[in-house]
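Deliverable D2.4 — example input (structure tokens):
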């Protein structure tokens, strides 16, 4: 995930929340993996900071989304893919779904 991808998801959720035609949102991914973590180069260039980082904006958008949110997970859901799916109302995990938390604490 890049910072711009986080912002795109925030904008989608905010727009869907305001649209009376939207009754449920489906969070899916193209390809064979749901979420492979942060893009290392983008993450180092734009590390999360307290306040309005793209990552915190997405967490708040997920928490504040009042319509049903369904995640369809296929393949790998690494790091944020696992933790963010916990904010969904329902997670459909395909047979090949793999949830992994790969956080490393600094010394």
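Example output (designed residues):
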């Amino acid at each position: 995930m890049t910072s711009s991808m986080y912002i795109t998801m925030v904008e989608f959720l905010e727009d869907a929340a305001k649209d009376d035609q939207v009754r449920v949102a489906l969070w899916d991914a193209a390809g064979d993996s749901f979420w492979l973590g942060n893009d290392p180069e983008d993450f180092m260039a734009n590390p999360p900071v307290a306040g309005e980082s793209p990552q915190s904006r997405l967490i708040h958008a997920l928490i504040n989304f009042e319509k049903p949110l369904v995640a369809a997970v296929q393949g790998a859901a690494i790091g944020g893919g696992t933790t963010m799916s916990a904010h969904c109302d329902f997670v459909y995990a395909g047979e090949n779904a793999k949830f992994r938390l790969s956080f490393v604490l600094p010394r």
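The longest strand covers residues 69-73.
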